[in-house]
Amino acid sequence: MNLRTILPPLVALALLVIVGTQTSSALRQSGTWRSAPRAKHPAADPYGSLERALARSDTASSLAAIRDPFSFARASAPRPVVTRHVTAAPAPQPVVTAIVTDAEAAHAIVVFKGNSYSVKAGDLFAQYRVVSITADAVVVDDGQRQVVLKRPTKGD
C-alpha cells in the first residue's frame, strides 16, 4: 500500500465528517432539528363537553312535542297554501353599437349579454340571425319575431 492511494480518501472522509457535524450543529441551534415539546399532562377529551350535554338533555319533554305517526285520531290542521305569482323579467335585447357600410357590404357591431359580435347580413349570433343591415338599423330574427335594432345617435 502506498500513502498516495490512502491519503486522498482519508482527507475526503475527514472533510465529510467536519461538514456533517457543522451542519447538524447549525440545524440544532436554529431549532429545525428540535423535537416538539411533550405535553406534561394528557389533553382533555375533545368530545367530553358534547357527551356531557347529551347526557344532561331531557329527552322526555322533547319527545312529547313530536307527533306520533301511527296515531290517526290527532291529525294536525292543514297548512294554508300560499301562492306567489312571479313575473318573468324581460329578455335582454341586443344593442347596436356601430354600423359600417360601404359599396359592397354592411357590417355592424352588436353587444348581447356582455359579448360583442361583428356581424353582416345572414350571420348568426347567440340565438339571433341577422336579416339585414341598413345605414340606420339592424334587423335580427330570433325564430319567433323580427326585432329592429336602431343605430345609436350621438350623445347616447
What does this structure look like?
This protein is an alpha+beta fold and 156 residues long. It has a domain at 95-150. Helices cover 28% and strands 24% of the residues. Strands 4-5-6-7 form a 4-stranded antiparallel sheet, with no helix packed on it. A 3-stranded antiparallel sheet has the order 1-2-3, with no helix packed on it. A hairpin with a 4-residue loop joins strand 6 and strand 7 (146-150). The chain starts with a helix and ends in a 6-residue tail after the last strand.
Number of strands: 7
Structural class: alpha+beta
Output the strand order for the largest sheet: 4-5-6-7
Oligomer: single chain
Fraction of residues in β-strands: 15-25%
Order of helices and strands: HHHEEEEEEE
The span between the termini is: 100 Å
Q: What is the overall pLDDT average?
A: 83
List the helices and strands and how they pair.
Layout: H1 3-30, H2 48-56, H3 59-64, E1 95-101, E2 106-112, E3 115-120, E4 124-125, E5 128-133, E6 137-141, E7 146-150
Antiparallel strand pairs: 1-2, 2-3, 4-5, 5-6, 6-7
What is shown here, in short?
The protein is of the alpha+beta class and 156 residues long. Helices cover 28% and strands 24% of the residues.
